[in-house]
Amino acid sequence: MRADNDHRTDPPALPAPVRRPVLLRDVRLGLRGPLRSVRLAEGRIAAIDEDLDAAPADEVVDAGGRTVLPGLHDAHVHMVQWASARQRVDLSATASALAAAAAMGAAAARANSAIPLLGYGFRDGLWPDRPERWMLDERCPPDRPIALISNDLHTAWLNRAALHQVGLGGHPTGLLREHECFGAVNQLSTVDPAVTDRWVAAAVRAAAARGVTGFLDFESGGNLDDWQRRAADAPLQARVTGAVYPAQLAQTIERGLRTGSAIPGTDGLVTTGPLKMFLDGSLNTRTALCQHPYPDRMPADQQYGLLETEPGELEALMRHAWAHGLQTAVHAIGDRANRIALDVFDTVGGAGRIEHAQLVDLADLPRFARPGLTLGVQPAHATDDRDVADRHWAGHTHRAFAYADLLKAGARLEIGSDAPVSPMDPWLGIAAAVTRTGADERAPWHPEQAISLAAALTAASGGRHAVRVGDVADLLLCDEDPAGLDPRELRELPVAATLLGGTWTHRNF
Asked: What are the Amidohydrolase domain coordinates in residue numbering (predicted)?
């Protein structure tokens, strides 16, 4: 077994240094902290003091008592899918398959075109009817490809024209799951890279307006090459860590890239991320791998969910990646999948990530504290999926999205959105982690698993606890101190400004 300090992640690279020092006057440090002045220079926090008026600065900004916090880091996004979803038909409010089909038919009538029409965000886990191809064929133009993508991205529902386009013309229902779904969506959503890049740039600007200074991108395909191209076209507005999938593993190793390696031509803003592997599916699709059977009538081989990767195959790929300096991020949602992930990490050794960890066995809690392991969690899913969890994980939800128990056990959490599964807005996840309720403002769901605001902010900023001298000047300014806000105010907290390495990426004062 390798020691956990082998192949440590390289320190974060900085963009080109900011030559013009900036002085932020009258800012409140952290949660209800004192008013101070903060001087930024060469991309870092140079000084914090009660009065820095005498210090040289080319730009002096009166912050008006606003609160300064470390910039937020979204620990799990699918950036192209999120940017594309912003252009698609929103199906999140549809309550049945027939209603979703009708919504797509209405959208197709408004936008007459031959290109595929995509909808996103449906949740069929609570629908009273089952999606069928004929529903779409009856309500949508027969010659236009129509595809609906589920909120968790693990299911796609296609009409006859779309099925023919992806080579599945004989499919009986049009309902595709897991890998079949991923392949079809990739084919139907392909657009010119220049168009995608414009969508991505707009999505990153919108994220900066919510205080985001970096994110871990789990987009598949040539993710690192795509970001290298975007950086060559225009300055990036956030730090990007790009995941690698098994199809790109050999090429990544051949290029000499390790987890944390900077990508040339990006001013250090794009770095190599982990190898992404899937152990199971998702809760809404009822393919998360669990130790208990699902209550719905499922095929005999799917009663407990689906095992996407055999443990032996996962171990072999993780060991190969780790030998070449690449960590692994393992998608594990069900409790059985999480136990397998922990077993393989214990066997291979080294650092890495478990993504989601939505349902955990209480006996496994201490194992999540292993050195070098990070849990990428999405608290907004807990409030969005509470009804689905109550139905399909009945009797087990006290250990679902169990963030308080995980922190108490010593686990390291990082908060992400999983956009487009949830919007790329960290404040939604922060508020859900603290209050265990969502925009519907229902009674908190398993409030015993709520965590403190300080812990949530730390998990949402990549582990940064406070604004400190010497740190990278990735910062945000809030109009109000987040402490003491009610759930709605916390979700909607205005962000006055965002700085990346001391450079403004968003400012509205």
From this structure: 59-503
Express the helix, strand and coil content of the chain in percent, nearest 5 each.
35, 25, 45
40-72 core/surface letters (b: 16 or more CB in 10 A; e: else) = bbebbbbbbeeebeeeebeeebebeebbbbbbb
3-state secondary structure of 259: coil
For residue range 468-485, what is the model confidence (pLDDT) as tens digits? Answer: 999 999 999 999 999 989
Dist. CA 218–CA 275, nearest whole Å: 9
Could you tell me whether strands 175-177 and 155-158 are parallel, antiparallel, or unpaired per DSSP bridges? Answer: antiparallel
The radius of gyration of the chain from alpha carbons, rounded to an integer in Å, stands at: 23
Mean pLDDT of 274-286: 95
Tokens of 286: 């009822």
Domains annotated for the chain, with CATH where assigned, are 17-70+466-509 (2.30.40.10), 74-78+197-465 (3.20.20.140), 81-188 (3.10.310.70)
Q: Do residues 436 and 443 touch, judged by C-beta distance below 8 A?
A: no
Q: What is the pLDDT of residue 6?
A: 34
Q: What is the pLDDT of residue 152?
A: 85
- Helix, strand or coil, per DSSP, at residue 204: helix
Whole-number Å distance between alpha carbons of 73 and 61: 24
| Contact in structure between 239 and 474 (CB atoms under 8 Å) | yes
What whole-number distance in Å separates Cα of residue 316 and Cα of residue 294?
A: 30
